[in-house]
Amino acid sequence: MAHKESSVGKEYVQYVFSHVADNVPSNWMLHGLDIASNSFPAKEDLPDNVLLSVQDVFEELPEDLVEKFDVVHIRAFGLIVKGGDPNHLCANLIRMLKPGGYLQWDEVDAHRAHFVAPNPTVSTLFTDKMFALWHHVTGKIGLSFRWPGNLAPILHKNHGLEIVAAHRYGPTNKLRKPATDGWTMGFDEFFCNMMRRDEDIAKQVEPENYCALMEGVADELMHGVTIWCDLMVVVAQKPKPRAVKL
Q1: Which residues contact residue 150 at a Cβ distance below 8 angstroms, ignoring those fewer than 6 apart?
Q2: What tens digit of pLDDT does each residue of 73-125 get?
Q3: What pTM was computed for the model?
Q4: 166: number of CA atoms within 13 Å, CB side?
């Protein structure tokens, strides 16, 4: 019997292609979904067990995606879930699962994002201002990051899934520096995109002030300031139908 796994979102479409496809049994079919195809490799370059499709997972699912997968894997939707309510997305992901199938969700707990100086002599003035800007802009566009820390209860209480595993991965000294670099680039990309899209935000964050802010952040990071968001990993199982006693 073929095992079918779906990965949802740009990061995991790329991950399936570059890492997973060569490391699973040949009868595993891997189906990557993204809202656009601009991150897809050419069809000719795909392994035989990989299919990539365009699908907005917030919209009504076509029948060929309903109850077709043994595993659904989703990652990093914190900036996509609006209003702090992932329940509609949860319902669609669960609809994709066969009875008894598994949902794995990897999400950063951005609500508890924080920065740390290596010692009291190192300034965090600009990093603090960057975080204040982050909270201001995300609040303005209706993003709330409280739900990732409650993902397991949401899946269990609201959607009836059995929680198989729920882990929080906190900071380690080995990962602090690469995580900080990644988060800083992510903040910068987010702010620049928002300034291009929203005139009000662009007026509030003047380019000269923004450049000075990020230069100050870079200097503080060079002196050892680090940024961290815990990673939440939840694995949950969709119930199987109960056998009917005759």
Answers
A1: none
A2: 999 999 899 899 999 999 999 999 999 999 999 999 999 999 999 999 999 99
A3: 0.87
A4: 14
Task: Report d(CA 195, CA 203) in Å as an integer.
Answer: 8
**Over the stretch 136-176, which tens digit does the pLDDT of each residue have?**
999 888 899 999 999 999 999 999 999 999 999 998 889 99
C-alpha separations of 215 from 132, 133, 204 in Å: 16, 15, 18
Q: What is the pLDDT of residue 15?
A: 59
Q: Which pLDDT score is estimated for 1? A: 43
Backbone dihedral angles phi then psi of residue 40, each to the nearest 5 degrees: -80, 140
Nearest-angstrom CA–CA distance, 136 and 71:
37
Q: Cα-Cα-Cα-Cα dihedral of 123, 126, 131, 132, to 10°?
A: 110
Cβ(145)–Cβ(81) below 8 Å:
no
Structure tokens at 39: 């991150």
- In SS3 terms, the chain reads as CCEEEEEECHHHHHHHHHHHHHHCCCCEEEEEEECCCCCCCCHHHCCCCEEEEECCCCCCCCHHHCCCEEEEEEECCCCCCHHHCCHHHHHHHHHHEEEEEEEEEEEECHHHCEEECCCCCCCCHHHHHHHHHHHHHHHHCCCCCCHHHHHHHHHHHHCCCEEEEEEEECCCHHHHHHHHHHHHHHHHHHHHHHHHHCHHHHHHCCHHHHHHHHHHHHHHHHCCCEEECCEEEEEEECCCCCCCCC
